[in-house]
Specification:
Strand content: 5-15%
Number of strands: 5
CATH architecture: 3-Layer(aba) Sandwich
Order of helices and strands: HHHEHEHEHEHEH
CATH topology: Rossmann fold
Largest sheet: 5 strands, parallel
Shape: globular
Helix content: 40-55%
Number of domains: 1
Strand order of the largest sheet: 3-2-1-4-5
Structural class: alpha/beta
Distance between the termini: 51 Å
Bound molecules: magnesium ion
CATH class: Alpha Beta
Radius of gyration: 18 Å
CATH superfamily: HAD superfamily/HAD-like
């Protein structure tokens, strides 16, 4: 029932925020990986609070810990923003993940007990905890219809990861399922972009 409600909510919000989502999709580089993002550059651009998704962004789906190669990158984030201003917002806050953050990245908070993205609850909680305006946040997420949509609803800036971590050999069914979801949501947003173009064209023709 909860899943059904979330799907309905996503559909309604997709329609309401279709132009904002299309903009995110259009302006995102095609091969964007987390490690290519420089924490220092984000800070220079005015980001004060970094919010990281887990599955696909910090590691492949279902992994207990962030990818090993990201360890230094995460430490750099903590040094740049301060551990209190780095958050993990995942729809799957597994105990192993919370435990990892507690042991290796003290002070970094994993948000739990909130409604899953695209509900805006997680981001709203982070805004309250950080004490910063929403414009000073940056969510990094690999899903258009969960994280990016939640960011649109909350009006929080977002970086869309277009080359997520995937380990097909370890969890083929799960990864194929999420690859299909990513593909479908991109197609849906592309369709909105196309419809908008067509509408613009028709209006232009009518004026001539
Ligand atoms: Mg994800």
């Amino acid at each position: 029932m909860e899943l059904f409600k979330r799907i309905l909510f996503s559909g309604r919000m997709l329609h309401r925020y279709r132009h904002a989502l299309a903009e995110i999709y259009k302006t995102s580089p095609r091969h964007c990986q987390l490690r290519q993002i420089s924490p220092a550059t984000l800070k220079q651009k005015g980001v004060a609070v970094l919010v990281l998704d887990f599955d696909g962004v910090l590691a492949a789906h279902g992994e207990a810990y962030p990818a090993e190669e990201l360890h230094h990158w995460l430490l750099e984030c903590v040094n740049t923003f301060g551990s209190k201003q780095v958050f993990v917002l995942s729809n799957k806050p597994l105990p192993s993940r919370l435990d990892y953050m507690d042991r290796h990245l003290k002070g970094v908070r994993c948000i739990t007990d909130v409604k899953k993205k695209p509900y805006p609850d997680g981001l709203q909680k982070i805004i309250a905890l950080s004490g910063q305006p929403k414009e000073a946040l940056m969510l990094v997420d690999d899903r258009l219809l969960t994280g990016c949509l939640a960011a649109c609803i909350t009006n929080v800036p977002v970086t869309y990861i277009t080359r997520p971590y995937i380990r097909l050999s370890k969890r083929p069914v799960q990864e194929l399922f999420f690859m299909t979801l990513r593909f479908l949501e991109r197609r849906l947003v592309q369709l909105y972009i196309l419809m908008k173009k067509e509408k613009g064209k028709r209006k232009k023709e009518q004026r001539l």
